[in-house]
Design brief:
1 helix; 4-stranded antiparallel beta sheet; 8% helix; 27% strand; binds zinc ion
Length: 108
């Protein structure tokens, strides 16, 4: 029996699972908050004007370029590869911690 369902890669922009446009991995929904970036490669998508509002129509890839550590925890700094805007998103509980730490080291 064949199970060839991978064609149905639907990209949704609310807290649902989606396929990351950067690394191609399937990202499960977050559950406790709005999923706004990929936990594997940390890339995000430029879809919000204000966090979670999905009002932005740029839709460029947001590349993680840095890290801020504040009282609330880790905040990833992104730069949009399309329009160049800088965005910030709180890190999620299941983000790849190694990648997050590397962002703070900047040894490119
Ligand atoms: Zn990814
Ligand atoms: Zn953009």
């Amino acid at each position: 029996m064949k199970n060839n369902d991978l064609e149905h890669a639907v990209f949704t922009e609310i807290d649902e699972e989606f396929i990351c446009e950067n690394c191609g991995k399937k990202v499960p929904k977050l559950g406790y908050s709005c999923r706004n970036h990929c936990p594997y490669c940390l890339y995000s998508k430029h879809v919000d004007v204000n966090p979670g509002d999905r009002q932005e129509d740029c839709h460029g890839l947001l590349k993680p370029i840095g890290l801020d550590i504040n009282k609330k925890g880790y905040v990833i700094i992104f730069k949009c590869e399309k329009c160049g805007q800088i965005r910030r998103n709180k890190a999620a509980e299941d983000d790849d911690m190694d990648k997050i730490i590397k962002l703070s080291v900047k040894d490119d």
